Amino acid sequence: MGNGRKVGSDEGVLRIHQTIARDLGTAILTGQYKPGDLFEGEIEASERLGVSRTAYREAVRILIARGMIESRPKAGTRVLPRSRWNVLDPEMLAWMFAGEPDPDFIRDLFELRGVIEPAAAEFAARRRTDDQLTAMEQALDDMGRYGLSTPEGRDADQRFHRAILAATRNDALSALASSVGAAVGWTTKFKHRKKLLPRDPLPDHRAVYQAIAARDTAAARASMAELLRLALADMDIAINEPGG
Question: What pTM does this model have?
């Protein structure tokens, strides 16, 4: 199976195998390849794309590592069910949000964040250090200085949320920082792409910061939950039960 799409050349910063992986991954995410579909052979694919077999092979390895495909001798390379995909991988999130992400997936991200981040804010209020509090304050200052419509502002937003996870002083929660940070960044960028003048979320972030600074665990949890509720509402996506 092939969609005849040539590897893009608009992002020269990407190495060729990363570009191939992005294009193939995006094709899977948008349904051009469906679970169970068989990829064409390595020789055919590399010739169609105009790349070396080595570059194509490395791209396939990237997709295998993200659980999107599997490759077996004599059986070929096949797309795996969505339940096997590592949907929290930061690079896969970038592929998803490059186009029009599924509203159900955005809901899924916010449900996950709703489980993790209010609890993380509560732990941070109990355990944070002065240096970690300073990191949060600096991130907020940069959010206000640059605004979330800019890459610098979105980076500051991610730093704020990562600082809270770090302040939990829980290695398992801290390990989620890159995935949560990527989710924050891409959902914020998507919101600004959809709305010219979205609501300013800085006061919501400051409320979380103030609760953590005051070591008010209940307020930290509640203010983070409210931040997430408002952020999802900004996207005009309601949390509804699947199938409801």
Answer: 0.78
